[in-house]
């Protein structure tokens, strides 16, 4: 059985769905953060596989951008999460709703 | 030479700014002299500009000087610029000339006022505004001046604002003028929407493109504006109250210059009047002539020397409107100029009289002032002859010209104007006779003083009655007590008698005691009896006192009631004060007896003399004998564009009309002589109360504005609150409540936002799929 591009796309969809559902279902900020990472990387998979199949280097360039954005996000996001955890050790994402309208 | 025109308004502006900054330091009289010098410079510049215009051929006598862009806004473009043509130069000449004389006069009149420099600051600001009004080359600059003179008028009427009446008179003038300003503004808007420009050059050049309806609407709106500023029916009612200001202000603003701006405006816009349907100018003529008549009737009954002149001004302005309405623009301007001379003269003369009479303005207190103030009297008499229309003084020529044009338009207009001329001669003669001729009445005891005195006496008499009544009551009390005593003494006597009968005759001691007791009791009776007798005489005298006091009081009452007679009586005979002992005369009368009316200083009489000579000869400006003596006609022709009416009266007819008018004037003067000098008839026959109350117009307006008008304004105010503000606030409230609902979407739960994004993304994908036709 040959691995066609479609397989990668299906994988991407699966990983994305896990990430999306995880983001919506879980309350631990760290886990939600990981779910976001999953979604980003699922998109990376789709970019890379489509870039290869279409013979377009643009897909890989886009991945670099996504990786950079993800790295930046990790820096900021982790700092936030650590800061929140120090103040409220047991805080869930739902407790952090002070900015509601 | 014409380029100097900007100096004409700039000099008074400079004066205003200088006095604003340095006024207090300049003080009296430097500030006054400085302001006068600025006006003098302005007048000299006007003369230069006039000669500059005369140098040019008649059809090139207009010149526009643009100083700078003022309001460049798309199609709407307004420059600050001056239009120089014969009309505006005529206006500037008499505004600055008469203005300068009045400035000079004010230095004397305002002497010693603590706000001396402030007065001249206002006067210069007024002159600046008035010159902007007449020189402006577009309707907005004119409006600027129009509002400026209104504001200065307000400031100067309430110059002595610590008096409540002065302050509210200023407000009355200001508010009444607002009504007229509304007309001016709407007319300007109409002009712009229909012609696309408010420059006089464009307005005059394109007036023939106006539709008849638009032109008529503009004329009617301008009539509203002019009725406000020039005090015509129905908005005249502020001018008589404007007399609350210092007299030079009345002369400058409320007689010679500002109030003529309505006439100037119509003359400036004569092509628009020519374009309107004929009822527009007719309306102006009828408003004018009815105002003239109406105000003249009121002037007959006024006792305040300035109020007569105020109503007279309204009446003369009515003549000018009559001239405008009949198309006789030259006659209107002619009368405006002569009126500026003689009315300023009369006002300044009145001011001189007031100055010399210790600020008393009531003509009933004057009389025979000719010998105290010869210069004032002489010049005032010239002004009187001029306004009454006696040839060869100026008023005769200008009024006659107006009446001639009125005749060729409609004999009805002429007739009302003619009757007004008779009334004018009558009330002006009345003013002169009451002030300068007849008996010197200033030292007389006045009706209200007599009344006060009688009231004082009445109070004393009433006190005497109540005092006598009180003493009667005590005497009666004493009588009752005395008769009680008598009754008791009788009882005692009886008791003693029985004691005597019962006592044992042998007991000598007891007998002697009883006998002496009896004698004592008899003595007591006779004492009581004599007490009663004495008291009876006291009661009698007290009764007599009461009745005599009552009789006195009754006499006093009757006398005081007959004391308040009407004014006319004292015109010829001194009020009978023989019944009043010298010591009882009120202090004020003593003071007045020692007061000597005096002539004013030369600063005040010099302007009077100059104005009197001008008022005497100003008729030379436009003598009707041949076309070459009609100098004003020739001079103003370039400003009138052939819209000047042609009078259809033949030469013989003119002589006849002039003769009839002159006869009317003679009738008026002779009637006044008969009433006020010879005493052939009672003044109260002419000075009807309804005239004195101004036909109750003021009360009518107050009643309307206080009642239905007030409710109407409340309604408008309610609509403003509920309708206009309601709509605006409603939009705000809608947005706020919508926002309040939308706010709930922001739950603050990150997962909810993620879900929303997911749903949105799915929706977006679905939409793309549907678009792609899957």
* Overall body shape of chain A: elongated
Radius of gyration of chain B: 41 Å
Alpha-beta classification of chain B: mainly alpha
Beta fraction of the residues of chain B?
under 5%
- Which runs of chain A of at least 5 residues are low in confidence (pLDDT < 50)? none
Helical fraction of chain A: over 70%
How many strand elements of chain A?
A: 0
Oligomeric organization of the protein chains? heterodimer
Low-confidence stretches of chain B: 563-568
Q: What is the structure about, briefly put?
A:
The complex is a heterodimer of chains A (101) and B (774). With 101 residues, chain A is an all-alpha fold.
What topology emerges from the helices and strands here?
The complex is a heterodimer of chains A (101) and B (774).
Chain A (H helix, E strand, L loop, with lengths): L4 H21 L3 H26 L3 H30 L14
Chain B lengths: L6 H49 L7 E11 L2 E9 L1 H24 L6 H20 L3 H19 L6 H32 L4 H7 L5 H18 L8 H4 L5 H10 L4 H8 L1 H6 L3 H22 L4 H21 L3 H28 L17 H15 L5 H16 L1 H26 L10 H56 L5 H56 L23 H8 L7 H16 L13 H10 L10 H28 L10 H4 L4 H10 L1 H36 L6 H23 L2
Helix pairs in contact in B: 1-2, 1-3, 2-3, 2-9, 2-14, 2-21, 3-4, 4-5, 4-9, 5-7, 7-10, 7-12, 9-14, 12-13, 12-17, 13-14, 13-16, 13-17, 14-15, 14-16, 14-21, 15-17, 15-21, 16-17, 16-23, 17-23, 18-19, 25-26
């Amino acid at each position: 059985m040959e691995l066609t591009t479609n397989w990668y796309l299906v994988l991407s969809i699966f990983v994305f769905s896990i990430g999306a559902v995880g983001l919506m279902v879980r309350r631990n900020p760290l886990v939600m953060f990981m779910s976001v990472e999953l979604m980003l990387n699922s998109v990376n998979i789709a970019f890379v596989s489509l870039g290869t199949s279409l013979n377009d280097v643009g897909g890989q360039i886009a991945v670099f951008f996504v990786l950079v954005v993800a790295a930046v996000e990790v820096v900021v996001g982790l700092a936030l999460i650590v800061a929140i955890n120090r103040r409220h050790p047991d805080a869930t994402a739902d407790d952090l709703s002070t900015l509601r309208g | 030479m014409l380029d100097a025109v900007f100096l004409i308004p700039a000099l008074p502006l400079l004066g205003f700014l200088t006095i604003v900054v340095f006024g207090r330091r300049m003080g009296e009289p430097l500030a006054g002299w400085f302001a006068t010098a600025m006006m003098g410079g302005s007048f000299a510049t006007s003369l230069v500009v006039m000669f500059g215009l005369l140098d040019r051929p008649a059809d090139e006598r207009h010149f526009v000087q643009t100083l700078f862009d003022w309001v460049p806004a798309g199609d709407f473009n307004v420059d600050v610029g001056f239009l120089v043509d014969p009309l505006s130069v005529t206006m500037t000449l008499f505004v600055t000339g008469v203005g300068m004389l009045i400035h000079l006069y004010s230095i004397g009149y305002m002497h010693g006022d603590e706000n001396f420099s402030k007065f001249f600051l206002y006067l210069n600001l007024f002159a600046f505004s008035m010159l902007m009004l007449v020189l402006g080359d577009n309707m907005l600059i004119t409006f600027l001046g129009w509002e400026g003179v209104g504001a200065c008028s307000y400031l100067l009427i309430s110059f002595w604002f610590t008096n409540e009446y002065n302050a509210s008179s200023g407000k009355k003038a200001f508010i009444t003028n607002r009504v007229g300003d509304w007309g001016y503004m709407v007319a300007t808007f109409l002009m712009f929407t229909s012609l696309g420009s408010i420059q006089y050059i464009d307005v005059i050049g394109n007036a023939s493109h106006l539709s008849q309806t638009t032109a008529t609407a503009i004329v009617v709106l301008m009539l509203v504006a002019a009725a406000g500023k020039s005090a015509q029916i129905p908005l005249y009612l502020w001018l008589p109250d404007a007399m609350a200001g210092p007299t030079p202000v009345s002369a400058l603003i409320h007689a010679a210059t500002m109030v003529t701006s309505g006439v100037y405006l119509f003359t400036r816009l004569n092509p628009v009047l020519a374009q309107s349907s004929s009822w527009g100018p007719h309306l102006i003529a009828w408003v004018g002539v009815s105002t003239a008549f109406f105000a003249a009737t009121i002037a007959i009954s006024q006792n305040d020397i300035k109020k007569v002149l105020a109503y007279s001004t309204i009446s003369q302005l009515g003549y000018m409107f009559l001239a405008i309405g009949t198309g006789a623009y030259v006659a209107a301007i002619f009368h405006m100029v002569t009126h500026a001379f003689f009315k300023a003269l009369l006002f300044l003369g009145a001011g001189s009289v007031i100055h010399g009479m210790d600020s008393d303005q009531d003509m009933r207190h004057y009389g025979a002032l000719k010998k105290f103030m010869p210069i004032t009297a002489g010049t005032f008499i010239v002004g009187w002859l001029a306004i009454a229309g006696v040839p060869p003084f100026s008023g005769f020529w200008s009024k006659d010209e107006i009446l001639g044009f009125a005749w060729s338009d409609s004999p009805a207009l002429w007739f009302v104007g003619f009757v007004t001329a008779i009334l004018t001669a009558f009330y002006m003669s009345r003013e002169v006779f009451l002030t300068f001729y007849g008996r010197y009445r200033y030292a007389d005891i006045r009706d209200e003083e007599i009344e006060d005195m009688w009231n004082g006496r009445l109070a004393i008499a009433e006190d005497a009655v109540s005092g006598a009544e009180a003493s009667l009551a005590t005497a009666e009390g004493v009588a009752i007590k005395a008769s009680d005593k008598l009754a008791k003494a009788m009882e005692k006597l009886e008791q003693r008698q029985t004691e005597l009968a019962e006592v044992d005759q042998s007991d000598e001691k007891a007998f002697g005691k009883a006998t002496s007791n009896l004698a004592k009791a008899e003595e007591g009776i006779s004492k009581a009896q004599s007490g009663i007798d004495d008291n009876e005489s006291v009661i009698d005298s007290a009764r007599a006192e009461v009745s005599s006091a009552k009789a006195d009081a009754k006499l006093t009452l009757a006398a005081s009631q007959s004391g308040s007679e009407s004014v006319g009586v004292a015109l010829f005979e001194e009020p009978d004060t023989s019944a009043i002992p010298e010591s009882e005369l009120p202090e004020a009368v003593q003071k007045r007896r020692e007061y000597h009316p005096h002539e004013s200083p030369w600063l005040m009489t010099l302007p009077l003399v100059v104005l009197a000579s001008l008022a005497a000869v100003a008729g030379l400006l436009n003598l009707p004998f041949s076309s070459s003596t009609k100098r004003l006609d020739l001079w103003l022709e370039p400003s009138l564009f052939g819209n000047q009416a042609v009078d259809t009266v033949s030469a013989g007819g003119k002589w006849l009309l002039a003769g009839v008018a002159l006869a009317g004037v003679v009738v008026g003067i002779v009637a006044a002589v008969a009433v006020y000098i010879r005493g052939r008839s009672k003044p109260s026959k002419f000075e009807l109360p309804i005239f004195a109350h101004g036909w109750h117009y003021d009360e009518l307006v107050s009643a309307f504005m206080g009642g239905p008008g007030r409710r109407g304004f409340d309604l408008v105010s309610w609509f403003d609150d509920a309708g206009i503000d309601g709509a605006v606030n409603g939009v705000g409230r809608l947005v706020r409540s919508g926002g309040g609902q939308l706010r709930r979407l922001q739950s603050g739960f990150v997962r909810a936002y993620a879900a929303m994004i997911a749903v949105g993304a799915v929706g977006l994908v679905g939409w793309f799929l549907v678009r792609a036709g899957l």
